[in-house]
Amino acid sequence: MSIELAGLCFTSASGLPFSHDHWLVALSYAVAAFASYSALDMAERMHRTTGITRIMWQGCAAAALGGGIWAMHFIAMLALTIDTPITYDPVITLLSLVTSVAFVAIGFRIIQSRRSPAAIAAAGSIVGLGVAAMHYLGMAAMVLPARIAYQPGLWSLSVAIAVAAATAGLWLSTRVHHRLRDRVLAAVVMAVAVGGMHYTGMAALVVQVDPMLMPADGALGDGALGDGVSSGPLAAAVAIGTFGLLLLALVSTAADRRISAAAAHEAAALRIANMELQAARLQLEATQREIIRRLCSAGEFRDNETGQHVARMAQIAHLLALSAGCAPGFAEQLLEAAPLHDIGKIGIPDHVLLKPGRLDAPEWKTMRQHAVIGQRLLGGSGLPLLDLAAEIAGTHHEKWDGTGYPAGLRGTDIPLSGRIVAIADVFDALLSARPYKEPWPLEAVVAHMREQAGRHFDPELVEVFLARLDDMLEIRGRFVDEGAAPQLLSQSDAAE
Which Gene3D superfamilies match (predicted)? Predict the structure, then answer.
């Protein structure tokens, strides 16, 4: 009994006996194993890349696995030994190759977007049905004087094996990435599954000779692929071509893997270098702060009458810089460098520096040299904090109208750091007691600051400073000289 279904004939009858060439069977298995290994190797690159590169490797993996499965099937079909001449229709044979590659590509696309068990099962079913379609298209490409039918039970089993083999192959492509041994073992398993599908399908084959299909002259037709060529050389040609292409693919994946490893190594080296650079920068900043701290200590040995003046002045300068819209990084550097504004006083003779009372003209001329001394002492190191400290030391006594010292700079020719520290220094100094003066009342200090805006001080900075006067006074309350009471008048109390 025979049944026609979807272009396939299913029968329970028997047909011509056939066998397989053992060497070609072995060759077909070797092609399947090599193709599986190549596909797994490229799938590893596919899963590790993104964008257009991932699409490229996805296509290569599909071509390797789909093309390799097709080559295995074609060689296995050439291994068929039966008592009837066989040749192959080139168009249908090519269509079977396209079918195999296309369905494998669809499967890889599905698992690339999602790797869940459900997605792998769906992709495996699609690819398995595609592989089965490829196999039976290849069988339909056979041109022989006989009718081809299949035993339904073995036919169904071959399709089931195709789906199971495809599912296992796709699952392995998402799991086997690293060790060579794992990829080799997975390739062997996949080759067994692929071979099992083919030879189960061949076992389902029933070839029934029909004398009516034999041409009168005994010829097989002009369009048959392999006309006049024995199966051995043709199988060898297909195998050599397949192995060559797959070997080229393996070389490409090895080269890409080596390039990726080199890029990863370079990126890691760059990260380490950046970490080392960051550590060096932090160490440099710590070194600069330590130098500044020790220089401040040296200054205190010479002139300890100012108490916490340098700490208050630095905090006030920091707040003023932020309030004026300066970058936080610059404000932080100002906080670190400002305490050295008067470090040049270590070069001033004691009889001038420590004189109780006002200085006369010659003494005042000598005292003014501390700005130049401080700038020379700190400048030229190439260290950012010390260079900024040198700038502050040399310019914080310059005045907006050009009457300051040591260079007589005017307006914005005075560096911003010097203009900010000038306001912070004078404000705190006027509110503090000195051997030569009593502290000024806050009202008088505020009036002086306003009066000197545009003369001594940058007028815009004075406006910003007075807008934050309460905050400036709060800083003074946190850094009080020993034995002194803080002045905490509010801004409204100090207004004129």
Answer: Hypothetical protein af1432
CATH number for the region 304-478 comes to 1.10.3210.10
Instruction: Report the C-alpha gap between 387 and 288 in whole angstroms.
Output: 10
| Residue 148 parent element (H or E) | strand 146-150
In terms of pLDDT, which residue wins out, 244 or 482? Answer: 244
How many separate helices (H) and strands (E) can be counted in the chain?
18, 8
Specify the DSSP element, H or E, that contains 173.
Answer: helix 152-175
Three-state secondary structure call for residue 223: coil
Question: How far is 423 from 410, CA to CA, in rounded Å?
Answer: 15
- Distance, in Å, from the CA atom of 383 to the CA atom of 402, rounded to the nearest integer, reads 29
CA pair distance 417, 362, nearest whole angstrom: 29
- Token pair 């093309």 is at which residue? 67
Backbone CA torsion sign across 226, 229, 234, 237: negative
Contact 344, 372 (CB under 8 A): yes
- Dist CA 424 CA 479 (whole Å): 14
| pTM recorded for the entire structure | 0.50
* Sheet arrangement for strand 146-150: 2-5, 8-11, 146-150, 205-209
Query: Please, which pLDDT band fits residue 219 given cuts at 50, 70 and 90?
Result: very low
Alpha-carbon Rg of the chain, whole angstroms? 45
HSE of 328, CA atoms in CB hemisphere, 13 A: 0
φ, ψ of residue 84 in degrees (nearest 5): -165, 145
Q: What is residue 3's three-state secondary structure?
A: strand
Average pLDDT, the chain: 80
Q: What are phi and psi of 298, to 5 degrees?
A: -60, -40
Q: List, in sequence order, every residue forming a beta bridge with 206; answer none if it has no partner.
A: 149
Instruction: Give the DSSP letter of residue 225.
Output: B
Quick one: residue 380, left, alpha or beta (phi over 0 = left, psi -120 to 50 = alpha)? Answer: left
Q: Which two tokens stand for residue 177?
A: 């990435």
Q: 424 to each of 38, 176, 431, 447, 450, how far by Cα in Å? A: 73, 68, 11, 15, 14
**Longest CA span, the chain:** 137
pLDDT digits (tens, 9 = 90+) for 180-199: 777 777 778 777 877 888 88
Angle, to 10 degrees, between the axis of helix 90-113 and the axis of helix 22-48?
Answer: 40
Domain ranges of the chain: 3-210+229-268, 304-478
Q: Residue 3 half-sphere exposure, CB side, CA atoms within 13 Å?
A: 6
Amino acid at 255: A
Residue 10 phi/psi, 5-degree rounding, is: -110, 135
Cis amide leading into 441 (omega within 30) = no
